[in-house]
Amino acid sequence: MAQPLEPTARSDGHNAAKSKPYWVEPVITMVILGVWVLYSLWEVLFHNTGTYHNYVSPYFSPGVGDWFGWHVLDALYVAWVPLLFRFSCYYYRKEYYRGFFWDPPACYAVDKPRPRYSGETKWPLAFNNLHRYAWYLALIVLIFLWKDAVEAFFFKNGFGVGVGSLILLVNAILLTFYTFSCHAFRHMVGGKKDCYSCDGKPTTSYKLWNRVSQWNTLHGTWAWASLASVWAADLYIRLLIMGVIHDVRLF
Amino acid sequence: MSDEFKLMVWRGDASGGAEVEYHVPAETGMVVLDALHYIEHNLAPDLAVRWNCKAAHCGSCSAEVNGEPKLLCKTRMDQYVGQTVTVRPMKTFPIIKDLVTDVSWNYKVAKEVPLLAPTAPAPFNMQQIDVDRIQEFHRCIECFLCQDTCHVLRDHAGQNKYFGPRYMIKIAEFEMHPMDGVDRVPLLAHEGGVGMCNVTKCCTEVCPQHIRITDNAIIPLKERVADRYYDPIKILLRRLGGKKDDVSEPKTHAVT
To answer: Residues 156..175 of B with a Cβ closer than 8 Å to A: which?
Structure first.
C-alpha cells in the first residue's frame, strides 16, 4: 500500500568525489529562471499579438484584451496568472529560495546566512500560502490553452497537423500534468481529510488523492517540462510571426 | 581499494577543538563507524562517538561526513576512495565531546506536541486507506539529521520559532490519524512555526529513512494552516459560522 508515498530508493554507493560543488545547482536555477524571466519580459512588453493564423501563443491566451477592446500590451492581462501560479508553487519555492534568496543555497552549505529570516510568516512571502487561488486562476487559463491546442489542428483548409499544432498539444498536456500534480490540489481533493472511509464513500476521495499523489512525486519534472514547453510554443509562434521560420505541415 | 583511509576527526568539547588526523586500514564493506571504532580501539581510546545498533535503526550515530549529515553506520567508506574523510559533530546542536552532541532540545520540543487523543477506546477498527499516510511517518528513527540540516535551526538559530522537520512529522502523524480528536493547527501556526519552513527540502534529502518529509508532512500541514489562517473565503465562512481562528476545533469522526 501507499506506493505513491514511497520514495525511489537512493543509492549511497556513488563515489562522493563525483558530487558537484553546492553552488552549482542554485546557479543553474538562477540562470534558467533568470533567462526565462527576461525572455518573458521581452515577449510581454514588446509585443502586442501572439497569434499566427490558428496558432495562439500561451502568453496571449485567453485573449482578454480582445474581450474588452484593450490592445496595449495584450499579454499583460494574462501572463500574470501563470507567473503567479509558478511563483507560489511549492516546487519553484524550493528552487528560487535556494537560487535567488540563497536561503539556503544548498543543504548544509557553509556560506554565511542572511541576517534576517522570517520564512513565509510575513508578507509578501506569506502570500505563497494562498497558492490555491493561483491554482484556481491557472485552471481557467489551462482550459483556454486546451481550446487553443484543439484549434491548432484546424487550418483554413480543414483539419491538419503542423509542427505548431503538436507543440501546442504537448504544451497543454504538460501543463495539465503540472497543474493537477500541484500540492494545493492534492490537499483539496483529499489531503485535508483524516479519514477516507468515515464519510460513507470510502474510495472516491482516496482514489483521487492517491492518483494526484502519484503525479505529485514528479511535480518538479512537470514544472520544468511545462516551463520549457511554454517557452518553446511561444518562441515558435513568435518566429512564425516575425517571418524567421515557416510552419511545417506534416499533413 | 587503497590500503588505508585518511580521516580528519573533530576532537574537542564545548570550549573548542580541532580536526585530528588518523589513518585507518581499509577493509571491505567498511562504514565510517567502523573506522571510528578502529581509532577508538587502537589510536585514541578517549574518542567520544555515540552509537548503538550499528544497523541504521536506532538513530544514534548521526554526524557530518565531508560536510553531509549522515548516519555513521550507514555511510560506506568505499565511496570516499582517494579522499580525506572529514567527520564532524552535528552543527546544529551543542557539543558535549568530540562527535557527541546534546540533542536534548528535541526532547523538550517533543513534550510540546499533544499526543494522540483517540475519539474511541482502543483497539481501533481502521481501514488501511486511512492509515497509509501516517505509516510512512512511523519509519522515523529520530536521528535528528533533518533537524541538523534544517537551515532555520542550523543557520538562523530558530529554535524558539520552529519545532523543526522531525516534529512536523510527529504532528502530521497524529494530526492525520483517523482516530485522533485533537486539533493541532493552532500549535502549528504559532509555537510550531510551520510558516518558518520555506520548503527547500534539505530535510527530505538527508533523511536516512527516505521519508518524504516536505511533500508528505510539511506541505500538507502548511495547507491545513492556510485553510485556517490565510484562505479569506474559509476564514469568512468560519467567522460567519461564529468560530474563531485560534480556537481548536475538536475533530468529530464517526467511529466505525
So the answer is: 156, 158, 162, 175
Q: Is the dihedral of CA B256, B215, B68, A112 positive or negative?
A: negative
Which regions of chain B does DSSP assign to beta strands (E)? 4-13, 16-25, 62-65, 68-71, 84-88, 95-97, 100-101
Task: With beta carbons less than 8 A apart as the criterion, state whether A109 and A22 touch.
Answer: yes
Quick: pLDDT tens for B53-93. Answer: 999 999 999 999 999 999 999 999 999 999 999 999 999 99
In chain B, domain spans: 4-101, 104-240
Give A184's contacts in chain B (Cβ within 8 Å).
223
> How many CB atoms within 10 Å of residue B177?
25
Where residue A106 falls among pLDDT bands split at 50, 70, 90?
Answer: confident
CATH 1.10.1270.20 fits B104-240, yes or no: no
B198 touches chain A (CB under 8 A): yes
Q: How far apart are CA B44 and CA B24, in angstroms?
A: 12
Burial B208-230 (b: 16+ CB within 10 A, else e): bbebbbbbbbbbbbbbbbbbbbb
Of A12, A129, A216, the CB nearest to B230: A129
Establish whether this prediction's ipTM goes over 0.85: yes
Closest CA to B131 of B83, B89, B179: B179
Q: How confident is the model at residue A1 (pLDDT cuts 50, 70, 90)?
A: very low
Give the pLDDT confidence score for residue B57 in this predicted structure: 93
Q: A147 at the B interface (CB within 8 A)?
A: no
Report the DSSP beta bridge partners of residue B152.
none
Residue ranges of A 39-78 with Cβ closer than 8 A to chain B: none
- Check CB contact under 8 Å for B202 and A107: yes
The answer as to CATH 3.10.20.30 being correct for domain B4-101 is yes
Is B99 within 8 Å of chain A by CB?
A: no
Rounded to an integer, the average pLDDT of A176-198 is 93
pLDDT tens digits for range A135-151 = 999 999 999 999 999 99
Statement: residue A113 has pLDDT above 80:
no
Residues B69, A15: C-beta atoms closer than 8 Å: no
Judge whether A222 and A185 are in contact, CB under 8 Å.
Answer: no
